[in-house]
Structures are given as structure tokens and as C-alpha cells.
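Suppose a colleague, Dr. K., hands you the sequence of a protein chain of 305 amino acids and asks what its three-dimensional shape might be. Before reaching for any lab equipment, you can write down a predicted structure in C-alpha cell form. Begin with the sequence itself:
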Amino acid sequence: MNSSPAARPRRFRPVLARTGFVGLNYEKSYTAPMKEVDMSLLGKHALVTGSSRGIGRGIVLKLAENQVKIAVHYYQNEGAASSTLAEIRKRGSDGFVVQADVTSPEQITHMFHKVKSEFGKLDIFVSNARPEVPTFFQPPMAITLEQWDTALDSQAKAFLVGVRETVSLMGSGGRIFAITYAEGSRTGGLQPWVGMGSAKAAMECLVRYFAVTLAKRGITVNAISPGWTEDSVMNTLPQQAQDLLRNWHERGWTPMGRLGTPEDVGNVVALFCSEQAAWITGQVIYADGGASLMNPEIPPEIQLS
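The predicted structure, expressed as C-alpha cells, is then:
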């Protein structure tokens, strides 16, 4: 048999196997490696609300890269949800789309019934959906009770109902996340954010209570707080406001010099879904490039000089 290098078949070998992250790479050094896959996520099932677009889409695409099967939730834009599912399938995973209004507990329950019928179980639940900005974006003295209820119902109440539904499908090793905005929860300057800021604060509080409640089941519960992020609520603002925010963060308010992306948030979720994150629960994780570390009383040019 000819044993020359040219005649020997190229074989795959695992890389980074000891870390739990396994990719496949040709022995030939010039061949580009495939994306690494966290083998601890292989065969897992996730529901991410509001995952047809924006941050939710970034989360599900990152999980799909790790071969997690995804329930793509949407409220009104079925086309965007179907497009996201197509991208999930391009990454070698699969799933289905599910419609629900997360301000309605009955529709949330129905959504979980579909998850049970399709998946039979759930390993990852991410509460990310929010209503459109005009339905809640009013300052304290102008916000209507209907707008207030829309904010609270879509966040704190939806998370309460969603986690209760989740635990009947989730075993030890499960991961639950709330996507929040901690700066809006502890400051008061962005006046029209009062409804959503209060709702996010309540959701962060629930994270801590659920973390204690579910700890003995081996389920972790954490909040992830992105900073200003492209392809998110920011893009619904007037163009002048968007430009001001980008310039402000690029010139130093975010020490890393840019706004976040949905992929950045997806990376954080995937990281905390790993087996190595099993000891972290009840925390608010800032994923903002360091923006939350800046002093609001001092211009960034002075802080970074």
C-alpha cells in the first residue's frame, strides 16, 4: 500500500476537546477550521421570546451554531421569524416558529404547550420580547395606565408566567435568562423609559427570587444587561438620536469604542449556557463593552485621558 502523504486519506481530529469545545479540523495545516461547537449544548432545546429580529435573533443564531434546536417566537412578523428559522437551518440546527402576545398569560401558556408538543422538554429559556416603543414610551407624568400595564405585563408578568411554565419542562442543568437594561432600572434620566425601566427592574428582582427557588433543581437564573445595541430598540429612534448615541459611544463612553451587536449578546448567552457556568446564578451580567463602568459626572475625554 502506498503510504506517502499524498495517498493517505485526510482524517478529522477533534480540537480543544479537553475544554468541552470541539471543532473539526483537517490534519493539513492549511485547511481552515470549522467553527467550534460546545458539545455540552449538543441536542439541547431553547425557547427565546422575541427572536425573529434584533437581539433575540442574535441569541438564537449563536445557539444554533452550537446545534441547539430553537423555538423562534414572534408576535406579528411571521416573515422575519421564518427567515430566522431558515438561518438556523443553515447552521445545521432546526426548530419551529411560534406566535404569541407575551402580554397575555393565556397565550404564553399556549406557547409553552406547543414547545412541549414539538420538543418534549426545554433546556434554555430566554425572556427577551418587548412591545413596540410607541406602546409604552412616555414620561412619568404622561404615561397612561394602559401603557404602564403593557410594559409591566410584557416583562415582569411575562417572565413570572414563563418561568413557571418552563420548570415543568426543564431538568437539572437548565438555564433561564431575562434580557434587561440595568441602566434604565437604576437611573431616571431617560424619562420616557419609566414604564419599561420599572418593568425591567421588577424582572431583575424576579431573577434573584427564582434563582434561589430553582437552585436545588440545578437550574440557574440570570439577567443579561446589554448596553446600547445595534439592530435593537435604538434603531427605532430618530436618525439624529441614533447618530448622537453612536458618536457618544465611539468617542469613549463605551471604553471598547463601539456599540454592541446582537451577536455580542448571543455570545454571552451561549457562554452562560455552558456546563462551566453552572455555579453562577441570580446575577445581572453587564454585556456593554464597559459602558456601565463610566462616571456620568465626568466627560469620557477626561476619564480616558
